[in-house]
Every structure is written in structure tokens, then in C-alpha cells.
Design goal:
Length: about 325
């Protein structure tokens, strides 16, 4: 019987090559300029912390890492950088539907000597059903699930291509209740600032409208999201039930990032207030003056939420999802 690595290489050999990349799906550009992605999200340098933390999490939960790892939606390589350094298995297939993102990640990951051989492929998660069964020990992704149109089909395809004892691990996914809370607070910003005598600039009004409408769009499930880049919000209990349907058992870590599981084991999440203000700054591009008014005049509302969660983690706005496939029972 062939080893997991031999099985993977035999399959990779069958794939067409396109501009030096393995090709499972046609190239599809991201909705925004790929080169600007890191700047918008305030990423100043690639760090290995997230990939290191993810690998430590796998170890803690006894996930099998003897087979290849697959990363879906690598973007500019934020998670890839550390996974390439720390994944202990034989091979690491790094993928994205966008060739431009793959080129940036190739550059960021570099040519260092790490345990796993690196391979790059153009892959759209909607085509995951084309991957051979029981091929990968680990499927990793960061901030990608909410871009995938058919979440149930995707989870089913992951379960099929995972080896027993392997896991699908996803971080930085938006959670429904935390996001709807942010949207509801967003609805109060204009009346609260106006009551405090702050004159709202036209650009601020426009940005506020975009913010609250965007969250409502993500939350709703009665809309066609086929052409939208960001699509969904998630409920951990629903992902747990969906995983269980396909033989995957969920462990959810509310508001955790992969980096939290690496030294110095310091949670990145500070409070709802900090997350909310950072979201407005980096994702919604609110300027410093607007943020200053929000921070000052919404202080009672923000403090109320932070006070509710003084001694436990919440509200869940994001988090890490670990869905482990049942290992094969050992013969006794
Ligand atoms: C928000 S970015 C995250 C990038 C990177 N993982 C990170 O953490 O910075 C979302 C990524 O998902 C990819 N993506 C979007 N739709 C996808 C799909 N249907 N299948 C696979 N990847 C997808 C995008 O090209 C992009 O790289």
C-alpha cells in the first residue's frame, strides 16, 4: 500500500500545470486588488505565530499530521508563512482561486528548508469534491469560509478528502451574534453623535450606511450571494451540527486566533470595544476623527457590553473552529 505522501504525489502528477502552478480550478481574481490586501488589514510583516499556533492546536487535540496539509484561500500568505515552517507532515498544498494571491504567497513564504515540501495550486473551494478521498490530514484556512457559496457542500467535501483522525481547522471567521450586535450598535451611532452635537460629514453617513447594510447582507440567508465576495456569518452550534452530519466533531474557541495557541500564549482578543473599533478602522476604513467621536459618545453602550463579559469570553464575534474526523478505531 502506498504512503500518504506517495498517494498525494501520484495525484498531483495527474494535474495540469498552468504558469507553473498546479491547476484544479480556473484562475479567478479577488474582488479587490490583491497587492493592497495586507495594507488594508494593517499587516506590516509576515509572522509565523498563526501557523505555529495552528500546529500546536493540532498536537493538543491529537490530530493526525502524517499526511499532507491543504490550505484553502491562502491570500497573501498570512497563515501560510507559519504553516510552511511548522507543519510536520510530508507535503503542504497551498491554494487560492487567485493566481495573483498565489504569486504573492510564493514570495512571502520563500525558499527555506522546512519539514513539508511546498506545492501551489489554483483551487476554488467549490471544486473540492474533485479531490481524492482520504487524501489530506489537515485542511487549514483563515478568513475564507465566509467567502464560499455552498458551505454545506464544502464541509461534506472536506470530510470526504480528510484522512481519519485528520481535521478541518478554520480561524478568523465572523460569528453571527457578535456581528449583529456590532450592526445594531452601528445603527445608534448617527443619533447618538447628533444628540451630542457632532455634525456628521457626508462621507461618515455613507460609511455608516455601508457598515450596517453590509452586516445585514452577511446575516441574511434569503439573498443571492453568488457574486458577492464576502457572504456569510456563522453560528458555532450550526457548524457543529453540520460537521456531525458528515462525521466531523467540532471544538469551538470563541474569539480566539491561531496565534493565541503559540508562545507567549497571550489572547489577541482584548474586548468587544477594541474589536469593534478596529473593525471600523481596518475593515470599514473609518477615519481617526470619526472613530474618536464614536469612542467618546458610545462609551456607555460599549462599556455595558465589556462589563457583561468581564470574566468569560464573549460575545463570540470570531473564533477558531476545529472539526476533527473520527480516527479509525485501533484493533485491540
Ligand atoms: C479574506 S481573504 C483571507 C486570505 C488569507 N487566508 C488571510 O488570512 O489573510 C479570503 C481568501 O479566500 C479566497 N477565496 C475566496 N473565495 C474562495 C473560494 N470559493 N474558494 C477558495 N478560496 C476562496 C480569496 O481569494 C482570498 O484569498
Amino acid at each position: 500500500m502506498s504512503s500518504p505522501a506517495e498517494k498525494f504525489h501520484a495525484w498531483a502528477e495527474t494535474l495540469p500545470k498552468w504558469h507553473g502552478l498546479l491547476q484544479v480550478s480556473p484562475d479567478r481574481a479577488y474582488a479587490h486588488a490583491e497587492e493592497d490586501y495586507d495594507n488594508q488589514y494593517g499587516v506590516t510583516a509576515m509572522e509565523a505565530e498563526d501557523g505555529d499556533g495552528l500546529c500546536r492546536l493540532l498536537q493538543t487535540h491529537q490530530v493526525d499530521t502524517t499526511g499532507p496539509a491543504l490550505e484553502i484561500g491562502c491570500g497573501t500568505g498570512y497563515l501560510t508563512f507559519g504553516l510552511a515552517r511548522h507543519y510536520p507532515g510530508p507535503d503542504f498544498l497551498i491554494t487560492d482561486p487567485s493566481q495573483a494571491f498565489l504569486r504573492l504567497t510564493q514570495r512571502h513564504v520563500g525558499n527555506g528548508e522546512y519539514p513539508a515540501r511546498r506545492h501551489f495550486a489554483v483551487l476554488n473551494a467549490d471544486d473540492l469534491g474533485q479531490l481524492p478521498p482520504e487524501m489530506f490530514s489537515v485542511i487549514a484556512m483563515r478568513s475564507t469560509l465566509h467567502h464560499i457559496l455552498g458551505v454545506e457542500a464544502f464541509i461534506a467535501a472536506c470530510a470526504r478528502t480528510l484522512r481519519p483522525g485528520g481535521a478541518l481547522v478554520m480561524g478568523a471567521e465572523p460569528c453571527e451574534y457578535g456581528y449583529v450586535l456590532m450592526g445594531a450598535l452601528g445603527q445608534t451611532i448617527a443619533p447618538v453623535l447628533q444628540a451630542a452635537g457632532v455634525e456628521l460629514l457626508p462621507i461618515w453617513k455613507k460609511q455608516l450606511g455601508t457598515f450596517v447594510d453590509t452586516i445585514k447582507f452577511y446575516c441574511r440567508r434569503d439573498l443571492d450571494k453568488a457574486t458577492a465576495e464576502d457572504k456569510h456569518l456563522f453560528n458555532p452550534h450550526e457548524l457543529g451540527e453540520l460537521g456531525a452530519t458528515y462525521g466531523l466533531q467540532l471544538k469551538f474557541f470563541p474569539n480566539a486566533t491561531f496565534g493565541d495557541f503559540a508562545p507567549p500564549f497571550q489572547p489577541e482578543f482584548v474586548s468587544f470595544t477594541v474589536f469593534f473599533l478596529n473593525y471600523l478602522k481596518y475593515c470599514m476604513l473609518f477615519d481617526a476623527e470619526f472613530l474618536k467621536h464614536i469612542q467618546r459618545h458610545l462609551k456607555p453602550q460599549l462599556k455595558y457590553i465589556d462589563d457583561c463579559y468581564r470574566s468569560h469570553v464573549g460575545p463570540a464575534i470570531t473564533g477558531v473552529f476545529l472539526l476533527k474526523k473520527t480516527p479509525v478505531a485501533s484493533a485491540s
